[in-house]
Design a protein that fits this description.
187 residues; eight-stranded mixed sheet; 27% helix; binds coenzyme A
């Protein structure tokens, strides 16, 4: 079970549950073609974002059981929501989860997404007691693969043309990190 004590405060950011009041901020990045290129949804309209933000299953702020997904807003204090993160609880028995991220390009290349993902990984291991966290990345998505590596994740797979994705075959990189590897990577 994961019930974070919100907001989760990092050096420069606050992670907190997504709310309907975040509609314009979330729309600003999730409506962009480039942002959605390698994520499994089309650029979102305002109505799509409203449906997302009011869908309790996709914007859970706690994880009570396997099969659920937690979503958190990445808030830059004084600016607003600049991205969001997801953590899927894949299996209770195998203590496994999967992490995902999206960030506004207007706030990219400053380490914000990595800082936010580190905080969520920390909770996944320390509070949800996961043994292994994975990330699935389109092989063409170099910024995301670099982010996995910055987080200390190991590339374990390169699945060649394993998915018919947005009208073409796409290959997938599989990344993972274990609890003991995470512990060792802590300063
Ligand atoms: C994946 C994604 C979040 C990465 O964004 P990003 O801006 O590269 O990541 P960060 O915010 O952590 O910034 C890290 C970059 O800033 C640089 N940087 C600058 N200042 C920094 C600082 N103070 N601390 C850390 N990194 C810093 C890093 O060197 C790094 O650049 P590099 O990858 O060229 O070496 C972003 O590309 C994105 O949202 N893509 C669209 C959605 C998507 O594809 N999601 C993933 C699906 S699997």
């Amino acid at each position: 079970m994961l019930r974070p004590d919100y907001p989760i405060v990092t050096k420069r950011l606050r992670l907190r549950p997504l709310a309907l009041g975040d509609l314009e901020d979330v729309y600003a990045y999730s409506s962009l073609e480039d942002v959605c290129r390698y994520i499994p949804y089309a650029p979102r309209t305002r109505d799509d974002v409203r449906r997302f933000l009011t869908d309790g299953k996709r914007t859970r702020s706690t994880l009570e059981d396997e099969g659920q997904v937690l979503a958190v807003a990445i808030e830059l204090p004084g600016t607003g929501v600049i991205g969001d993160l997801v953590l899927f609880w894949r299996s209770k028995e195998h203590r496994s989860g999967e992490i995902g991220w999206v960030q506004s390009p207007a706030y990219g290349a400053r380490g914000y997404a990595t800082e936010a993902a580190r905080a969520l990984l920390g909770l996944a291991f320390a509070d949800l007691h996961l043994h292994r966290v994975t990330a699935r990345v389109d092989a063409r998505n170099e910024p995301s693969a670099r982010m996995c590596r910055r987080l200390g994740m190991r590339q374990e797979a390169h699945l060649v043309e394993n998915e018919w994705f947005k009208g073409e075959w796409s290959s997938e990189l599989g990344f993972a990190i274990l609890d003991r590897e995470w512990e060792r990577s802590r300063p």
